[in-house]
Each structure stands twice: as C-alpha cells, then as structure tokens.
Amino acid sequence: MLTTYLVLLLVIPSDRGIGPLGAAGSPSTLFGLGMLLWWVWHHLRTPRTPGLHRSQPVRIALYVFVLSVLASYVVSTLSVLPFVDSNASNMQLLSVASYAGVVLVGVDGLRDRERFLAVLRRIAFLGGCYAVLGFAQFMTGHNFVDMVPIPGLSSGGAEGIDTRGGFVRPEATARHTLEYAAVLSMILPLALTLGISDRALMRLKRWFPAVAILMAALVSVTRSALLGVVASLVLLVPTWKRSFRIRAMWVGGLGLVAMYFLVPGLAGTLLGMFSGGDPSVASRTDSYAVVGSYLSISPWFGRGAGTLGPSYRIFDNQYIGLLIETGIIGLAAFLGVVLTAIVTTLFRRRHGTDPVLDALGPALAGAVLAGALLCAFFDAFHFPQAVGMLFLAIGLCGAHWNLQSPEEMVQGPGRTTGGDGRGVRRAGAIMRRRWYVATVVLLLAIPATVLAWSVPGVYYAEFDLHFVAPAGATKHNPLRTEPSSVVKYAALVERMYVSEHPNAPILPTRAPLYGTGLRDAQAVYLPNAGGQWQTNFNRPTVTVEIVKQNRDDVMAAAEEITKGISAIAIENQKELGVWSKSQITVQPDAVGVAYLSARGKYAVVGAGLLALGLSVGAAFLFDTIAAHARARLHRIHKGRRSSRQVRVPGSKASG
Question: Which Pfam families does the UniProt record give (predicted)?
Fold first, then answer.
C-alpha cells in the first residue's frame, strides 16, 4: 500500500489532479484518504496486534496535530471568507486527513523488518530514477513530463522549465524546483544509509540512488537542495565510521572538482545564490512585517488551515503559513510531530543487535529534519510531493520505533487491559469505563457549538473613486491630462488621506478586505494591476473597501471617505491656482452594500467533530493514566509483600 502511494506521489506529475478538488485532487492525496479509511476499518475488525504499541509517540503527536487543524477549521467557519478560501479550507481538511492516513499506515502497517526494508529500498530506487529524470532535464533543456498526457487528470498550470544563471533548473515530475529539491533531500539520507549498510543488494543497486541524487542536487541550481543535503548529513555523518568518513570526503571532493570542469559556470552560479542581493530572499523578509497583524486577529488557532492563499500574501515560508492559518497551537503541534519523529528514531537504537536498523534511525531522522528545514523556504503544503514525502518519512519513523522495541513487541495482546478484545470493543470498553470524562468534555462543548451557530456576518462595500482629467490643459494648470499623470495625482491624494485616516493593519494583494477576518475596518488604496513584488499602478482610481457590522455604518463611512478625498483633491489644486474648470475632479461609483454571513452549519459540524475527538482523546488519556497508576500501586504493594517475606525468616534466625 505504501509502495502504491509512493508511485502515485513521484511518478504522476505533481501538478496533475482532478480539477474541481483543487489541492486535494492529486491521485496520491486521494489514495492517502483511502489509506486512512483502510486503517480505521482494519482497527475496527482486528484484535490488538503484537508490535502495535499502546502509546505510540508518533501516533499521539499526529492526533494532537489533527485536532489543532480541526480547531482552526472551526475558526475559519466563524469568519466571513470568500468562497475560494472557504472551499480551500474544506479541501485542506481532506489533505490533512490524507497525510494522517499515510502516517498511520506507515506506523502500524510495517510490522516486520523485511517489509520495512523493502519499502525503504523502493523509496531509494524511485528517488534515484526521480533524480535521473531531473538530471536529463538539466542536460537537455526538455521537460519530457509534458509529453505524456494522463487521461482524467488536468494540469494545475505548471510553467515548464525554469532557468537561473543560464542553467536549466530541473524539477522531474515536481511542480517546482523547490519541491524537487525537498524530495531529493529527504530521500538522500535513506539512499546513503542503504548503500552503506544494506549488504543484501549488489553494489550497483545499493549505490545508484545515492550517486544519482547527489548529482541531481548539485545541478538543481537551488539553495534548498544544498541546505537540505547539509541538514540530512548533519545527523548522518557522525554515525559513520571514521574510515568511511574519510573516504566520503575524498569521493565528495573529487565529485565537486569533476562537476566544476564538466559544467563550466555552475560553481559561480551556486555561490551567487548565497549572496545578499538575491531578490527572492528580499521578497521573503519583506513580508515578515505583516505577520503580527494577521496573528493578532486569532493568535491561538489561526484563521483556518488552507485559507491563506496567494491573493493575500506569499510568504514562501510554511511555518509562517502554519502560524497564521493554525495559530500558535497548530504550529506547536506540527513541530511536535516533527520533533517526535526525529527523537524517537535518533535515540531509540538497539546498539548492535541489528546494524541495518540502527543505521536507519539517524537516516530517517535526517530525512525528516531535511524536509522540516526546507519548509522554511517555501509553502511546502501547497506542493503534494514535498509534504507527502515528509509525512511518509514521519510514518516510517514511527514504524522504526516499533521495530526497535523488541521488549514491547513480544508482549503482544497481553498489553491490552481488561481483556477488551477487538479494536471496536476495546474502544467501547474504554468509553464505558470513562464515560464521565467524555460527558464532561461534550457538555463543555455545547455552549461553544450554540455560539458558533449564531455568529453574525458583516456588511461590506467596495467602490472606486475615479480621478477625471479636465477636457484640456491650460497655462494655469501645471498638471497634464494623460492618464499616467492623473495616476500620480491620485496617488498623492491617496497618501495624504491615508496619513490622516490610517488603513486597516492588513491589506491583501488581491483578496477582499473582509477575507482577512477584520470585522470593523476600511482601506483606501490605488488598485495594483501587478503583483506582490512587481507593482503596476496604471489607473487614475482610488479603491475603497469598508467592512462594518452595520449597513448604516458602511454608508456613513463611504460618504465620509468620498467627501474627504474629494476635498483634498480640490484644495490642492486651488492652492496651485488651478481654475475650477481646469481641475481634476473625483467621480465616485455608486456604493452597494452586501451582507456576508459566516458558515454556521459548517461551524456546528466542525465543532461537533472537534468535541468528539477531544472527548475520545480525554477518555483514552484518563484511562491510560489510571492504568499506569494501578500498575504502579500494584508494583509497590508487591514489593512490600516481598520485603516482608524476606524480613520474617531473618528475624527468626537472629532470635
């Protein structure tokens, strides 16, 4: 099942999918949803299986992350969002469910060493082929992927081959070079470790993936690939023997020298990427100033997973995206999943019992670290291959933790308390024992659910104020009548007005003002026909957006803004001595006010699911704590009885 997912993830181009489903329409995401359903069905019908730990760290961390995403979804339903963002939040829920299915099948589906190694070998081999395709694109300048149409799947708008410094930036089947680099960086530590430790394969099969990935990473012409390689090697190299580290340094050095001579100019391009003048770096840092404004609206649970599209702001940083979309709690939960996966594989080793599994621990930790690090350099959750490979690596970390715990695997069903039996009966037994815990959580959730249904909407208006030039210029009118000149005057008036009446703290690039979550705000600005980084103000118009909780307040604000801008425009020209008939005038559009409601029904459903998840989690947590407390008391009483039995014979002998 994991192999099928891997093939769908890497072989089918990342931009192909079922169009109406958006980001959730990729074949790998849909298959991940099927994996989640299979996992649930399997646990409902199968008795507790030896090797499935009652307290699996990766599974617990994932559960917390999913609940945090669901909480952010509830917040999004309470806000007034454009349809595009509302639909994106629904699709993001499906995507997160798909990633959860991948992790859970990875954690619980690989129960023995051979199946675990087989999956890792397939990942390494497909990664090598993936790298070879990218290398071929670099050498030939052809995409190749566009030559193979896939029936039933539409393209998400990939733009072919990109270039940098005169070199082609390969991407294989990825949507972008950054996604390609992320996948290579996560597979590299696995390929290297299998090449070193997996003696069951021939030398060519062992080393082909690692060599191909290293070559492809060098020619990818992206900082992310190099940083990802370094991140994975930071955890991997210290585990190698000293003799192998020396050989690796020599081989790596010779390889770099060979690439320097075989591809002239590549070294200079790579070094230039780390210079301070790169505009892509500046575009990221310039966006950080508005993070606090977004976060101030809903700091703990965010604005809703999947609702921060490019029409608001492009941050090129998944952690900032998670912080704004899922809040402090959601970001902490995701970091908890990453750190749990790294720690459980990096430090849970059997020290010589199985050298291959021992070596794969740091490799899997390096894969997760590389993927997590590169999330800081692009919006990884918008790229199916990057995020899919990251969650697959996290699931494999959980499987490695299971395999590296023989003392728990041999206990098998005996770890199940109370003879609860099959999964559904065990869950039912726990809920019956701890019904009062679940009931308290559900009762506490009822008021919140009722409030979610009754959250009011907002009133919104958007209209333009057109700056109209006079019929002709006169000697007393220093302004020209071309539209470009009138645009400059409109910009002057707009800045003068905004200096006295500040705009809302958040101004989206293209999205409407109400989509930010603000419920009492206004914005006055020149419409930008360009984008976030390349602006283009070519219309002599000032756009006004108003969000209020009352229709009359919207109309009053619109009238006040119109009068204020018109007055500034006229007064400036009067001071310049422009005749009234030669003045640039302001003509407002008719103001239409629309009422936009929150998604009350979705809020109730989301709040209900969240309450159910919290109640089940609380019941299981309370039952686990109680079981551990009983076991501890049992050990204490048993120890006291044993000590009494030892002291009684001793006292008779002394007497």
Answer: Wzy_C
pLDDT at 86 > cutoff 60? yes
Residue 385 shares a structural domain with residue 251: yes
- Is residue 485 situated within a structural domain? yes
pLDDT score of 356: 87
Q: Is the dihedral of CA 203, 206, 212, 214 positive or negative?
A: negative
Q: Residue 155, class by beta-carbon neighbours within 10 Å (0-12 exposed, 13-18 middle, 19+ buried)?
A: middle
- Pairing label, strands 541-548, 585-588: unpaired
Pick the closest to residue 13 from 275, 385, 294 (CA basis): 385
- What six digits make up the tokens of 536? 């283009």
Residue 465 backbone phi and psi in degrees, to 5 = -110, 115
* Mean pLDDT across 226-255: 81
Are 51 and 409 in contact by the 8 Å Cβ rule? The answer is yes
What six digits make up the tokens of 578?
């422009």
Amino acid letter, 11? V
Note whether residue 158 is domain-resident: no
Which residues are CB-neighbours of 188 under 8 A, at least 6 positions away? 127, 210, 213, 214, 217, 228, 229, 232, 367, 370
The answer on 526 and 476 residing in a single domain is yes
Please check whether residues 187 and 70 belong to one and the same domain.
Answer: yes
Q: Is the dihedral of CA 361, 365, 366, 367 positive or negative?
A: positive
User: What is the three-state SS of 108-158?
Assistant: HHCCCHHHHHHHHHHHHHHHHHHHHHHHHHHHHCCCCHHHCCCCCCEECCC
Give the domain extent around 306.
2-8+24-48+58-146+167-409
Strand partners, 525: 543
Overall number of domains in the chain: 3
pLDDT for the residue 379:
92
Q: What is the CATH number of the domain that holds 463?
A: 3.30.70.1130
Three-state DSSP at 323 gives: helix
Instruction: Classify residue 249: in a domain, yes or no.
Output: yes
| Torsions phi, psi for 169 (to 5 deg) | -100, 105
Choose between 410 and 533: higher pLDDT.
Answer: 533
Comparing C-alpha atoms, which of 4, 3, 8, 9 is closest to residue 388?
9
Return the SS3 of 200: coil
What confidence tens digit (pLDDT) does each residue in 428-463 have? 777 888 888 888 888 888 888 888 888 899 999 999
**How do residues 204-214 score in pLDDT, each as one tens digit?**
888 999 999 99
Q: Are residues 282 and 387 in the same domain?
A: yes
Which residue has tokens 């604005």? 303
Instruction: Assess if residue 280 is contained within a domain.
Output: yes
Q: 247 — phi, psi (to 5°)?
A: -65, -40
Tokens of 493: 């008036």
| Sign, Cα dihedral of 488, 494, 497, 500 | negative
Residues 274 and 140 both lie in one domain: yes
- Write down the pLDDT at residue 373: 94
Phi, psi of 14 (to 5 degrees): -65, -25
Answer with the residue of higher pLDDT: 403 or 411. Answer: 403
| Together in a domain, 477 and 525 | yes
DSSP letter at 513? G
CB atoms within 10 A of CB 294: 23
Same domain, 332 and 447: no
Whole-angstrom distance, CA of residue 634 vs CA of residue 640: 10
Tell me the residue type at 36.
L
Whole-number mean pLDDT of the chain? Answer: 84
- Residue finishing a domain among 576, 596, 616: 596
Among 92, 61, 67, 68, CA closest to 397: 61
Looking at the fold, whether 178 and 301 belong to one and the same domain comes out as yes
Q: Which two tokens stand for residue 215?
A: 């070559």
